[in-house]
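Dock 4'-deoxy-4'-aminopyridoxal-5'-phosphate; give full complex structure.
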Amino acid sequence: MHALVDGVDILNFASNDYLGLAGDARLVEAAKEALDRQGSGAGASRLIIGNHREHVELERDVAAWVGVEAVQLFNSGYAANTGVLTALLREGDVVFSDELNHASIVDGCRLSRATIAVYKHRDLAGLEQLLKQHAGRRRIVVTETVFSMDGDIVDTASLAEISRRHGAHLIVDEAHAMGVMGPEGRGVESKADIVIGTFGKALGSFGAFAATTHAIADLLWNRARPLIFSTGLPPHVAAASRRAVQIARSSEGETRREKLRAVIARFRAAVPLAGGEASVPIASWLIGEDRQTAELGHRLFEAGFLVGAVRPPTVPPGTARLRISFSAAHTVEHVQQLVEVARRLVVR
Ligand code: PMP
């Protein structure tokens, strides 16, 4: 988990490469093999002539992994969220969105022209209240499962139950859970109508998907504008993602997840007050004051550690924090070093 920044070797605690696959030789090999066979570009939108074997094989493998009928690839998680939300929602519908949802979800809601009902972070009672208020309209609930800035998790079982009881569809974004959480790393395992995942984080590649039913996948293929009006993913990128999925599902994937859990546990033992769930590879170390947080991030960088120094407006005022993300490529010694140096700097 080293990174070269301006020629200086630093330990990287700021990337989303949770399984340490982004530099893996097998992903590189899979991409090279496809590059040699298919060339460097898809050639057009998949709906025109840009549909390649690598896309279809990847969709089939992800469907088997996540345990759904069908998967629709997208060129990124941003394109997946905006594409899915705009394909399914129209004026007059209501979309219920957690206040801390990712910008790609916020933008998808806005572009859809549906009425947007924002509920407080993970407040399922508040969500239910809003669902009742908007009874009689077509309704979709959308949330991340693992939240990217706080490292906390929504109660997906209750969320699915509430959505079903009120006749609303549920979309979950598992960007920070896919590859990391659940059996075979297939996510938080909610009973959602659509699960969004990205290949750009734990899977060390690029691109994204919506895992769902045949009927919804067909609808996305025909209506999702980022699919229709954009060149397909380069086939070699899909080939690398496919290799990453195979690794994530395998016993090696499980070994990597165990390593990751050990690294997270070491940090949480040393910094028990850090925010985020014990199983999530994101910890938020609250500092509070903006300038102090920026200064601390800078000093940590000078000491050889890259962490996110997150300040408003990304997070609410007064909650500036270090966002630290962990990887199976870290060792517990790396974590120990980070904690010791950070402590020394905070105290000063
Ligand atoms: N959803 C969430 C929750 C994310 O954190 C991100 C990436 N920051 C995305 C979607 C976008 O994914 P991608 O990087 O594949 O566009």
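Observed: The chain has twelve helices and 13 strands.
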